[in-house]
Amino acid sequence: MSNPSHPHPMKEVGRLCPTPLRELIPLESPESVVSKPPLPSPPRTFLDASYILTTHLVPAASPRSTPDVPLPALPTWTPDKEQWKASVMRTAEEIASTRYKQWDGELASPGSTKPLWVCANRYVRKDVLGAEESRGLTLFAAHANGFPKEIWEPALLKLIEAQQAAQGAYAIDEIWVWEAVNHGDAFLVNAGNLGGMYDWQDNCRDILQFLMYYLPIDVTASALPTHLPCHSEALAHHRKTYGHQTRTLIAIGHSLGGCSITRAAISVPKLFSSIVLVDPIIRPHPREGPLLSGRTYQYVIGALQRQNQWSSREEARKRFNESPFFSVWDPAVLDIYLECGLCDDPNGGVKLKMPGIHEALVFSEVMTPYETWDLVDSLDTSIELKWIVPGKNPPEEAGVREMLVWRRPENASNVIIPFAGHLIVQEAPAALAEEIHSFLQRKYGFPASRL
Prior knowledge:
Rossmann fold, AB_hydrolase_1, three-stranded antiparallel β-sheet, alpha/beta, hydrolase activity, hydrolase, 14% strand, 35% helix, globular, eight-stranded mixed β-sheet
């Protein structure tokens, strides 16, 4: 039985941002880097033995969209609940105050030039053919706020299983899974250079820089260096103008990742063949009332209060299983989160790779989602869109997704996963994989497989 979809809504909400929309800061040619950091985590193997897993680093875009701003004072934990709550609120208020200064134009200092790195996992088929012979797809996946790149692996495994069961309907040659500069292993590399402000536009710019300057020209099973080489300005310009010569690129983004991919594609559409958007955080500007909604503010507070350290992974698993937030996750996703979302703590035990303060900073950035809502109707209609949205939605967001999936109606479709909430990747990896597989088979499958 197929999942339902949202029909065209009776009410539509168009562009709402009252101020001119920001352009992405143009990319500058990446400078050669002398000091190259090592990977912070040991190599891993992928559970599907037909693919080789390697991890790579590439420079993030520089300068950044925001100036160097110090981290706000961290909340001071105390067993006194009222004192702890007050400390968390002071940090949340400082984050919000800095954010409003940015939006009001009070932080006009030059963008930070501290070196940052993006981390990416590459999954390549062992038997992939050369560029002239292969007709396989390249997938590019980007995560939600607070999660490491590996959070995609359970869904990707199910997708590969479905593709292989389809007996050659289409081929997935290579998968690149993105990790933003303040998440997972990328955070461990960048911790000393991350400040107190993060703009989602920089995630968009980092994605574009990777796809234009660092994504290898050909798909090959040969080993790649940890630090991917930078392509020439001429090739980057060619990709921006004409797209990839030897790849068919499908981008898949969840939440933060979905918004970032959409905004990147609005800026440089030729890089993308199609986009699968898994409940992206793209929202209409409120027009009246605070830019930081009460719900968003609660996300900031929740991130600041998040437990960061445990005596062992076993204790962390026990606590996660007791939590309503984690208890609805697919067990395979929880396993990978425990493996790759945590790291050894020098003080003993284990801790989150990404501290809650940085998750809170990401939550506080709402301008890019507002602007992307306004701009999505201008996304090149040659890029097919597949929206995958949850059936369980908070009452205050009633109607938003129904309108969002129709903001650019041409060459687009949507599907609802009824039993899932916003964290579809975590709660329903098998159902998500089946929807992605159906889309890829219909659009890219060999003619006989579409009958």
